[in-house]
């Protein structure tokens, strides 16, 4: 399983995967990989690793930050919308 995804410029935008930012409140997904290598270390240290289940538990009134619940242990994490956009979900 790849940790990072690099998308060639020739890949159309319609093939883009769903990200954590795309989740609706209460919806869950499974982390596939992290798109931004610079942000990846921070997210990995906070428990956002490939294969972990993530649930969007809330959004701030203006949509940023997002509150996530990671894994079975109900670990809660708040991330910016821009950070959530780099977390790709399995299809």
Bulk shape: globular
| Fraction of residues in β-strands | 25-35%
Mean pLDDT: 84
Identify the strand order in the major beta sheet: 4-3-2-1-5
Number of strands: 5
Structural class: alpha+beta
What distance separates the N and C termini?
14 Å
Let me know the largest β-sheet. 5 strands, antiparallel
Task: Characterize the structure shown.
A five-stranded antiparallel β-sheet has the order 4-3-2-1-5. 14% of the residues lie in helices and 30% in strands. About 8% of the residues have low confidence. By secondary structure, it is of the alpha+beta class. The chain has one domain: SH3 type barrels. Strand 2 and strand 3 form a beta hairpin. The radius of gyration is 13 Å and the shape is globular.
List descriptors.
five-stranded antiparallel β-sheet, Transcriptional_repressor_C, FeoA, alpha+beta, 2 helices, SH3 type barrels, 14% helix, 5 strands, 91 residues
The gist of it:
Helix content is 14%, strand content 30%.
Fold topology:
Elements: E1 28-34, H1 37-45, E2 53-59, E3 66-70, E4 75-79, H2 81-84, E5 87-89
Antiparallel strand pairs: 1-2, 1-5, 2-3, 3-4
GO molecular function: transition metal ion binding
Organism: Hymenobacter cyanobacteriorum
Protein name: Ferrous iron transport protein A
């Amino acid at each position: 399983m790849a940790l990072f995804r690099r998308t060639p410029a020739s890949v159309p935008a319609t093939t883009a995967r769903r990200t954590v930012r795309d989740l609706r409140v209460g919806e869950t997904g499974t982390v596939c990989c992290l798109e931004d290598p610079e942000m990846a270390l921070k997210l990995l240290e906070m428990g956002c690793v490939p294969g972990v289940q993530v649930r969007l538990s809330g959004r701030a009134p203006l949509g940023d930050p997002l509150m996530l619940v990671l894994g079975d242990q109900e670990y809660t994490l708040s991330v910016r919308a821009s950070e959530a956009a780099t977390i790709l979900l399995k299809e």
